[in-house]
Amino acid sequence: MKEREHFGSRRAVIYAMAGSAIGLGNIWRFPYMVGEHGGAVFVFSYIVATLLVSLPVFIAEISLGRRSRTSSFGAMSRMDPAHGRRWRWVGLMSVFIPLFILCYYSVIGGWSLYYLIKSCAFDFVKGSPDTVGNLFGGFISSVWMPVWMHLLFLAACAWVVARGVKSGIERFSRVTIPGLFVLIIVLIVYSVSLPGARAGVEYLLRPDLSQLNVKTFVYAMGQSFFSLSLGMGAIVTYGSYVKSDENLVVSSAGTAIFDLLFAVLAGFAIMPAVFAAGIEPGAGPGLIFESVPFIFSSMGTKWPVVSAIVSVLFFLAIVVAAMTSVISLIEVGVAFLHDRFGMDRRRASALVFLVCGAVGVVCSLSFGPLSGFRLAGKNLFELFDWFSSNVLLLLMAFTVVIFVGFVMKKEDVRDEITNGGRKQRNARWFGVIYFLIKWVAPISVLSIFVTNFIL
Ligand code: PHE
User: Fold this and answer.
1) What's the pTM value of the predicted model, to 2 decimals?
2) Whose CA is nearest to atom 9 of ligand 1?
3) Based on CB atoms within 10 Å of each CB, which residue in 95, 102, 279, 313 is the most buried?
């Protein structure tokens, strides 16, 4: 059998993981979740959830992937000492969930692409600050444009995946992440200087405890898993490409902290502008598409050229960040079809494109012609988003930590986390890490999940 491909270097691992983790989850989803769930209380719950629960889940997933050296579908069956077939359905879920997420995620990728085109046409700089935010409503309720953008975006990503792990993914994530980081800092500096921005900063920093409830935690934990690409096989699959001398704890912690920082910074770029523009913070999935053009338009009244350049670079970086995430979502499906059915990468990518592209079209239309279809006040797109983060990811992450904590041999887990005892610092911390994986993570996820359904 051909040897499994490996990521070339440590930097490549971190970049690829960060490329998967950092995406629309940080820039689009985090600010809108903060706005819908009470501001600072959400930010703090999210930070706690990431450090205490998501990080151990991350280490569990990456260890499982590297140990089993197979994609998420077969990882559990292979590592079960009893070789039970009962893990097969979990493996299947871990393939299904990312594909489910892909369907609607790529719709937002399409929105970002559209905004990139708009910024290339200088539409935000030319429009007045009061009107540019309103472009969004007209755009998503139209029929064709969002659909084409979604399909175009998804096709581009599928094409990258078809070219293979190394050449495609590594090269892509290396350039864009640092660029996006710098651009967000530029936006923060401008955004907090806007008149009325102060209220936005306070909204992020001053907790309003009356807003705190179980839902805050459910959404915060779901957001944290979503943002770190957990509970869906992506990190397990990536783990299977990680070299055996790589320090898993350092890579995991590096990715988690990077990702957290990005989300919080995105919050500080967006929220002050939301308040300055008088947009309702709980405006939902359109939040950044309404507030960011406001930033560029008002920047454009003072410095049109700077604003034009920054807006193009910003949306370009978002599109690419979204692409690296989507690439990792497609990769899960492709690795499965390849490892399991021997399908070549090109065909597998094409198949994923066709199926998810079609379902995505329906999600896209749910803001327009299909907006009448609602369940519990949510349209189809919002149902996909809610169901995946608040139900599927939590269940899947729970299963992974239970598997790593109770089914996999403890020695195997120790071996992975400490690289056979060679990483001494990890060896010293192993007890704590193992305890977090085995007890803290599953109990937190389960109790929050159950309380949410009871209340
Ligand atoms: N973590 C990505 C983000 O924050 C989304 C993603 C989810 C990517 C699942 C891969 C797998 O945007």
Assistant:
1) 0.92
2) 229
3) 102
Residue 384 lies inside a defined structural domain of this protein = yes
45 is in which domain, residue-wise? 10-454
Counted domains in the chain: 1
In a domain, 2, yes or no: no
Atom 6 in ligand 1: residue holding the nearest Cα: 229
208 vs 204: CA distance, rounded Å: 10
Q: How far apart are CA 316 and CA 119, in angstroms?
A: 9
| Residue 72 included in any domain | yes
Each residue of 220-277: pLDDT tens digit? 999 999 999 998 888 888 888 888 888 999 999 999 999 999 999 999 999 999 999 9
Q: State pLDDT tens for residues 93-108.
A: 888 999 999 999 999 9
- Can you tell me whether residue 369 is helix, strand or coil? coil
Separation of CA 226 and ligand 1 centre (Å):
6
CA atoms within a 13 Å half-sphere pointing along the CA-CB vector of 360: 30
265 CA from centroid of ligand 1 (Å): 17
Ligand 1 site, CB within 6 A = 20-21, 23-26, 98, 101, 226-227, 229, 232, 234, 325, 328-329
Q: Alpha helix locations (H) across 342-418?
A: 345-365, 380-387, 393-402, 410-417
